[in-house]
Amino acid sequence: MQSLDLSLKKKKKKKKPALDLEDGASPAVDELTDKTEALSLNEEAAPADADLTGKKKKKKSKSASEEAPAEEEPVAEEPLEEIDTSIKKKKKKSKALDEELDAEAAVAAAEAAENDMFGDDAPADDTGDLDLSGKKKKKKKKAAEAGEEEDDVFASEEKAPVAAGAETWLGSDRDYTYPELLQRVFDIMRAKNPTVAVGEKRRFVMKPPQVLRIGAKKCALVNFVEICSLMRRTQDHVLLFILSELGTTGSMDGNNHLIVKGRFQQKQMETVLRHYIREYVTCHTCKSPETNLTKENRLSFLQCETCGSTCSVAAIKAGFQAITTKRAAMRTG
Amino acid sequence: MATIQNFVPSRLDPFANDQSEDAPGGNYIHIRIQQRNGRKTLTTVQGVGEEFDKKKLVKAFKKEFACNGTIVEHPEYGEVIQLQGDQRNSICEFLVKFDLAKKEQLKVHGF
């Protein structure tokens, strides 16, 4: 029953744009139709694709390139596909068969679509699956790339690429690469003056935050004061950051614990603290944690004690807070 | 008077803000998460550019992430998109994929 419902709904939605676009077919649409004809051999699949492109163009206020809809399509249908393939296929096919089905009553149409689906149109289905898989691969790869890049961005302590070994180019004909030379320079510097740690990455060691649950809705950060002193930041500043980042309220209690409203795990607190350290503790130039946070006429500056650089850091701002409590309760309270 | 050597006056103002970078300081897109009751969460997207139609964006989000969503008008922050559930990563991917924002522009908050 559910699948039936879905197909009906889809048809209602899809029909309009398809009709709109049939007159003025853009070149992108033409190409798409060519492709689909070549793939699936039934012409009625073409308008379905065309209407997708049209919708995308309307949705984004940017000129939809030819690949944009192609990417979009599998994304929209991917989650469905794994769970129940029948619904997905029918969605496609019922679009394709729209014109034939127009004459018939809605329920009968859906049934007919179903029958066609499972009976006659087996080859067409196959082609549909084929091209979907091709597109999906593309998308997966992209997602993977995006993930990797994101990891790079969010890695708080990234390491410089280390060359395989010193002077590996000696044995071969090839030219030395820049990282190798850089490594060589640092090696020499370290060898010549062992007292000065040049470019040595000292890991900033942080105590893990101890989070205790207080009741059902609150959490306590037990070693909050300790963490603040380790980072050499005022408690107020850290408190403000944590609260604005988590989007909750909280305060210090008598035993110097930080009480935060909401359930948080230690891991989650760690990520928040890591954000704080990256933003307000480590020097943005040399990544050294020995820094001071000073305030000069309403602007915060981060001054590094190792390299002496100063850079301004953004003030902590809570940003938009959605209303999560009952509105009626707010009105009375 | 010593003259400054090698000083070539150019149209480039050396003290001007760096315009070449594509991440202008002002228009970050903040993606936040808020806890609701129980395991439920809420994702808010603040600072999507004026040139994009939020209504259509929400529609796309809702369809893509299979969640509900709405637009909240805020006097200071403009139109803010609210989505049900933790959609932070998927929003980031979506915005980057369709060139609505650069990766450097996105700021993900919360745990």
From TrEMBL, chain A:
It holds the Pfam family eIF-5_eIF-2B. The keyword Ubl conjugation does not apply. It comes from Capsaspora owczarzaki (strain ATCC 30864). This is Eukaryotic translation initiation factor. The keyword Transcription does not apply. Residues 1-156 are annotated as: Disordered. Keywords: Initiation factor, Protein biosynthesis. One of its GO terms (molecular function) is translation initiation factor binding. Residues 68-84, 113-129, 146-155 have a biased composition (Acidic residues). GO terms for biological process: formation of translation preinitiation complex. Residues 201-310 form the Translation initiation factor IF2/IF5 domain.
Automatic annotation (TrEMBL), chain B:
One of its GO terms (molecular function) is translation initiation factor activity. GO terms for biological process: regulation of gene expression; regulation of primary metabolic process. The keyword Phosphoprotein applies. Residues 29-99 form the SUI1 domain. Residues 1-23 are annotated as: Disordered. Pfam families: SUI1. Keywords: Acetylation, Initiation factor, Phosphoprotein, Protein biosynthesis. Transmembrane segments: none annotated. InterPro entries: SUI1, SUI1_dom_sf, SUI1_euk. NCBIfam families: SUI1_MOF2 (TIGR01160). PANTHER family: EUKARYOTIC TRANSLATION INITIATION FACTOR SUI1. Belongs to the SUI1 family. This is Translation initiation factor SUI1.
